[in-house]
Structures are given as structure tokens and as C-alpha cells.
Amino acid sequence: MWRLLGARAALRGVRIAVERRSRAAAATETAAGAMERAIVRCVPSEPKLSLSFALADGSHKNMQRDQSEPVGRALSRIATNAIKGHAKAATAKKSRKNRQNSSGGAACAGPGPESAAACEPVVKLYYREEAVAEDVLNVDAWQDGAVLQIGDVKYKVERNPPAFTELQLPRYIMAGFPVFPKLSLEFGDPACSLFRWYKEAKPGAAEAEVGGPSSLSPSLPSSTWMETGVDERVYIPSNADIGLRLLLHCTPGNGQRFGPSRERVSVCPVEAGPGTCTFDHRHLYTKKVTEDALIRTVSYNILADTYAQTEFSRTVLYPYCAPYALGLDYRQNLIQKELTGYNADVICLQEVDRDVFSDSLAPALEAFGLEGVFRIKQHEGLATFYRKSKFSLLSQHDISFHEALKSDPLHKELLEKLVLYPWAQVRVFQRSSVLQVSVLQCTKDSSKKICVANTHLYWHPKGGYIRLIQMAVALAHIRHVSCDLYPGIPVIFCGDFNSTPSTGMYHFVINGSIPEEHEDWSSNGEEERCNMSLTHFFKLKSACGEPAYTNYVGGFHGCLDYIFIDLNALEVEQVIPLPSHEEVTTHQALPSVSHPSDHIALVCDLKWK
């Protein structure tokens, strides 16, 4: 722990020192008449390069040129732009003088052909103090550190500097909940970038308190913003920030240099938070990332927005939940805080909207050291995240249950049994459920690998036989991955299985077999009955046991979610306690203003045997 704190303090010190040095250098260069910047973006996979610079008249030029074009043509085009800029500036100057002399004085003559020719700027490109020949191709001419001269103005060429291609702040920000900016960088690394947070100054704030990025962005008046003192990527607003907007100033870096800074202002001011949430007490058990020998695992159905926002959900399923608390912007704040507070190594999520994965979950969890993969189902899908300091993604082996059953020889025997029951076969093939399988490799011991599976089985209460067949397909596929492709690697199988411990699906998983006379084979009546016996290879256990419920809504509560583990290779070190019944029912049921889903996350620490 002390090493971790020391490392963070050291990194913070480096960032502050670098930022101070860069500001001091910028001030010195400005005083000494430093060169302007000419930004060149040149990527081998693209036919054109881009060139961006500001002319002396204040106009900003963005040019696209073929990489295979001789640089002389590009310089000629720059000269033409400079002449146009000079002409515009001269015309504006003439107009001003004419207005000044409108009382009767002689008007100034405009720039004639001779003066225009005299004003044509010299445009040259130099590299290591030697002029670059005009027949050199653009791809070779525009080198990092080259100097572009346009008339009397010199520009330092920066080829592929770090740059933000995307920078966004969330629309809805609440006090006490972390704010995760969505970042996309090119030629850079968020860990090497600089961040500084500001907030609006309250009316009547003391002049000494008010500062801000006015020197960095003239469009933002210094009287508007004040520093928060936070120079980290993530900012947690306090109650003192309620009613104020936030501003984030970012400078992209890559460990060697920094690129052009960008700023973003939050659309809405900070709102008040809900107070204590159901997961706050659980976070007391997960304050730190586990040691290397442990794997903290989370399985959580986060309730897809596509389902939460239906009229049926608002009026029938969750009538007790305040409408604003069903809104995605609100729930995302709670989901992000809950997940990041678990400090997990592996997170398996169900009912993940595609945009929620890319715009919310991935930025939030990436800021805390996790990387994720997504598998779409129809309107939503599955997401698996892993801690990058502990694991790397070796391979993915996702399947759709009905497609695999139809076409993969691995399931030939099961398919032969199912075709004997045409009505059941039709129903099984209509389901869109998928299985996400990721093979992870330990970063510190490449001989250690693990198979992480994630699924969301068919939901209907009368679909017991469908879930049995889906589970049979899943276990056969997982065996293929963990035994044939990567012999002997352990398995963690997470998901919302829509099955209580009394069902045939759970019996099948735990006992390794299911008899053909089990009642779940006729779960939807005699017409769809499909009696068959099934077996599987694994020795599995529910790591979190059989809680009274993991799903608690107005009309139902029961245990539907599990983290199944391979008993031959893994054991349970710790199960993080679920919220108390009092916490769950404070607002009658789930979801609520203090809990973002109708399910409860399962969290446990697993240990290699």
C-alpha cells in the first residue's frame, strides 16, 4: 500500500514539475519571439497528410495534401494562401483608413499588381538548417523538427504530436459521484497526459480566489472559473460544487512530448446526489486492488436502458421507482461509481447497451486500469472487463447459441436429440442469447491463463428447457476452449442465468447431469416437451453460494445470478456481502434512487489453487 501511495505521489510530482516547466518554457519562448507551430499528421495507412498552421493575418489553415506529392507543390499552395491572407489584411487596412479619411482627405490607394508582387512571401521548408528540395515527396519532407518559413514568420513542424480526437464530459453530473471524461487519443497516452479541473466561480467570490485557464483559452474569461486543485483524470464533485459547471483542461502527452491542449465545459451544472447508496457499505470491503494471487470477480446485470425506458417498465415492472431514477444519465453515475469502487480484476456485465459500453463504461473503467470487450445480442449485449496490470486478452471465442447449435459439429449429438421435438426446436432457434468467452493471460506469469465466460440466458419463466439446452451448448463450447484450445486452464463462468437454485439448469451445472424425466423438460407444457438426458465435464460451484435473491422487483425476488468456478483450479477467498434487506427495500424494491438496476452485483475474491 505504501509503495502504491508513493508511486502515485511521485507521478503527481512529475506531472506538476513537467507542467510547470512547460509553462515556464512557453513563457520564455513567447518573450523571445518563439516559432509558431505547424502540426503535421502523417499516417502510413492513409494517402493524404494534413497540415495545420496559423497565418500572420490570424486565419487558421488546414490543408490536405497527397503524401506522394512533391513538397514544392504544397509550398506553392501555402504561398497562394499567404498572398490571399495578405490581400485580405491589406483590404481591411485600406477600409479602416478610408473610414478615417471620410471627412474629405484623399483615400489610400489599394495594393496594385506591383505591391502585391512585392508582398508575395518567401515560402521555404528547412530541415537541419538546409532547404528541402522541392522534388522531395511530402511524406519525406515534413519531418518532425523541420522549420517552415512563410515570409518573416517561422513555424516549427511537429509531426504526429499527441492529440485528442475526442474529449467529452458526461451530460449529467452529481455531487459525490466521479466524473469520467470520454477520451480518445492519437499518438498519446492518457497516463502521460495532463489534466486540470476548474469550476465556475460563485457570484461574489473573492478576487484572490478567482483564476482559471484564461491564459490558455482567451474565450474563457478569467472572472468565470476557479481552480479546484485537482489535476487528475477523474474528478469527484463535492456538495460545494452543486449548481456550478465544470471545465476540464487537458494536454495530451506520450511520455516524451505534449500536444495541443483542449478544453471542455460541462453542459449542465452539478446536481445533488442521492446520498447513501446500496453499494457504499460493500465498498468498505474492496478499498484496494487485490494481490496478484487473487482474482476479484464481479457479475452484474446492469439493466439495459432499452428495457428501463419502456412504458411497461415504468408502469408495471417498476412503478415504485421515480422516473428520473430510471433515466440512463442518472443510472450511469451510480453504475460507474459502484463498479469502480469494487476495484475488481474481472467484471462480467449483462444487459449492456452498445452506447453505454463505448460512452460510459469503457471510459470509466479504463481510467481505473481496466479494458473491456463487448458482444452484442440484439438491442443490448455482454461486456467483459479485465485489469490490464494483471491480465492481457489472449483470444475471444464468442458464440450465438442457436447458430452454434445449428452449425458447429461440437453440438451434433445435442442437435440430433433436439430435432426429435420440432416445437421445442423452433423455440430454441428463435432465441437470440449469446455467450462471451475470453481467454486471459497473466501478465506476470505467462504460464497462467484463465477462461472467463459470460452469458445471459433466456428470461421467460416457462423457458426452463430452453435454458437447459443453452447451458449444454455453453458448457460444451467452454470445454472446447479450456481443454482443446488451451488444455487445462481454469474456468470462471458468470452471468444472469434466469434460474433459481431449485431449477433444472442449476441442478445440471452443479451436479454435472440432468435426467430426461426432470420436470423442466416440459416447462412450457406437453406440446414443447423435449425429454433428454445431458451431462457435462466440469466440476463447478457457485462461488457466492445461493443468496436469498440477486433480483428484487415488486412482483418477484429470487437468486438468478451466479459466478460458477472450476473447483479443480480455483477456490473462494472472500465473498463480498450483499446489501442488507433493509437497504434493498428502503425504496420498496429495485431499481431505486440509490440502486441503478433490478439486479444486485455478485462480488468475490478467487484464488488459484
UniProtKB/TrEMBL annotation:
<dbReference type="GO" id="GO:0071359">
    <property type="term" value="P:cellular response to dsRNA"/>
</dbReference>
<dbReference type="InterPro" id="IPR005135">
    <property type="entry name" value="Endo/exonuclease/phosphatase"/>
</dbReference>
<keyword id="KW-0540">Nuclease</keyword>
<dbReference type="GO" id="GO:0000288">
    <property type="term" value="P:nuclear-transcribed mRNA catabolic process, deadenylation-dependent decay"/>
</dbReference>
<dbReference type="GO" id="GO:0006397">
    <property type="term" value="P:mRNA processing"/>
</dbReference>
<dbReference type="InterPro" id="IPR036691">
    <property type="entry name" value="Endo/exonu/phosph_ase_sf"/>
</dbReference>
<dbReference type="GO" id="GO:0000958">
    <property type="term" value="P:mitochondrial mRNA catabolic process"/>
</dbReference>
<keyword id="KW-0460">Magnesium</keyword>
<dbReference type="GO" id="GO:0005759">
    <property type="term" value="C:mitochondrial matrix"/>
</dbReference>
<dbReference type="GO" id="GO:0140374">
    <property type="term" value="P:antiviral innate immune response"/>
</dbReference>
<feature type="domain" description="Endonuclease/exonuclease/phosphatase">
    <location>
        <begin position="299"/>
        <end position="599"/>
    </location>
</feature>
<dbReference type="Pfam" id="PF21171">
    <property type="entry name" value="PDE12-like_N"/>
</dbReference>
<keyword id="KW-0378">Hydrolase</keyword>
<feature type="domain" description="2',5'-phosphodiesterase 12-like N-terminal">
    <location>
        <begin position="161"/>
        <end position="271"/>
    </location>
</feature>
<feature type="region of interest" description="Disordered">
    <location>
        <begin position="86"/>
        <end position="115"/>
    </location>
</feature>
<keyword id="KW-0269">Exonuclease</keyword>
<dbReference type="GO" id="GO:0045070">
    <property type="term" value="P:positive regulation of viral genome replication"/>
</dbReference>
<keyword id="KW-0479">Metal-binding</keyword>
<dbReference type="GO" id="GO:0004535">
    <property type="term" value="F:poly(A)-specific ribonuclease activity"/>
</dbReference>
<keyword id="KW-0597">Phosphoprotein</keyword>
<keyword id="KW-0496">Mitochondrion</keyword>
<dbReference type="GO" id="GO:0044528">
    <property type="term" value="P:regulation of mitochondrial mRNA stability"/>
</dbReference>
<dbReference type="GO" id="GO:0046872">
    <property type="term" value="F:metal ion binding"/>
</dbReference>
<keyword id="KW-0507">mRNA processing</keyword>
<feature type="compositionally biased region" description="Low complexity">
    <location>
        <begin position="102"/>
        <end position="115"/>
    </location>
</feature>
<feature type="compositionally biased region" description="Basic residues">
    <location>
        <begin position="86"/>
        <end position="99"/>
    </location>
</feature>
<keyword id="KW-0809">Transit peptide</keyword>
<dbReference type="GO" id="GO:0035457">
    <property type="term" value="P:cellular response to interferon-alpha"/>
</dbReference>
<comment type="similarity">
    <text>Belongs to the CCR4/nocturin family.</text>
</comment>
<dbReference type="InterPro" id="IPR050410">
    <property type="entry name" value="CCR4/nocturin_mRNA_transcr"/>
</dbReference>
<dbReference type="GO" id="GO:0071346">
    <property type="term" value="P:cellular response to type II interferon"/>
</dbReference>
<protein>
    <recommendedName>
        <fullName>2',5'-phosphodiesterase 12</fullName>
        <ecNumber>3.1.13.4</ecNumber>
    </recommendedName>
</protein>
<dbReference type="Pfam" id="PF03372">
    <property type="entry name" value="Exo_endo_phos"/>
</dbReference>
<dbReference type="InterPro" id="IPR048821">
    <property type="entry name" value="PDE12-like_N"/>
</dbReference>
